[in-house]
Predict the 3D structure of the following.
Amino acid sequence: MEKERRAHARPGAGSSWAPSTVLVTGGAGFIGSHACVELLDHGYEVIVVDDYANSTPHVFARVERIAGRFVGAVYELDLRDRRALSAVFDRHSVDAVMHFAALKSVSGSVARPVEYYDTNVGGTTALLRTMHEHGVHRLVFSSSCSIYGDAGPGLLDEATPPRPTNPYAASKWLCEQILADVCRHRPEYTVLCLRYFNPAGAHPSGLLGEDPQDVPDNLMPYVAQVAVGRRERLRIFGADYPTPDGTAIRDYIHVMDTVEAHRVALDHLADEPGMHVYNIGLGQGSSVLDVVAVFSETCGRAVPYQMVPRRPGDVASLVADPSAVTRAWGWRPTRDLSDMCRDAWRFQQLNPHGYAGSARRPGPKG
Ligand code: UDP
């Protein structure tokens, strides 16, 4: 059953422009797939491109089951293949783009920096060229708090000078600079750049969550796989950070809040020309041991761990000052760390081996 479209005819938005068809790059990934649900739930037409580098097309059957609607079309392609990407823009009248597609492992980027620059920066410039050729100028960009680097304790606002400490973060910062420069020279562009802190959790249905193809790099899916018995113990990277318990502090934000911010951003693509950057976080830091404690409480058993040396490229603390987005849009996240652990655990229990083995969707395919 189709759900009602709502929320993007914002009173007082000052413009009649509102997107109806949104192209989601990386729509099969963790955040991208949740974004598809959020967009379908709010009546948008959704077109996806993804190369499945760290994701699977199985996810769309679940997206559509939750939303009760079909994704308009799904294309398997690498953004750097501009001919294939251009054909997608030829076929669909795209109003706005949400750009999630990127490689995102810090350790992977330290091992393979050129691949990270090529995929993340090259993918973004290819997308921008193709958008330009098709007269599409509105973009919500997925950036990362990791660009702040080793900024020290305390809340980081958007004016904190970026000092990336690894090629992944540097690639995101390069993309931001390119986007800002495009907006500086071309007034027809609007780019809303969301610097997320640490998205975690899962859709509350338990159907959609984080399903890394390899050994998880990120903390929450690793903890969940230990809790379900798929891995023996968590390795905590560094117990000698200058933090109260010695483990690194991050600002975890629920993936549902993260994608809600993207959907709300669409309402502001018409009334905020130029490039605008917003932190997307809770403004609350949790150490690795805090996450282990809350997850252990959620799943009812102690998650075993061992302390190991720091991971190259990691920093002690990254916590958002999230006030700018609330001031600008009146939006703030509503879910906390227990909600994230509860939903991540539900997904892990219902899908101990992730999406492997789920049926491919029978719906439309581009
Ligand atoms: N971490 C850890 N063990 C793991 C994965 C992550 O101790 O198996 C730590 C990591 O060193 C960092 C925090 O958990 O301090 C969050 O890491 P994640 O990779 O999830 O996000 P990042 O902040 O690096 O983007």
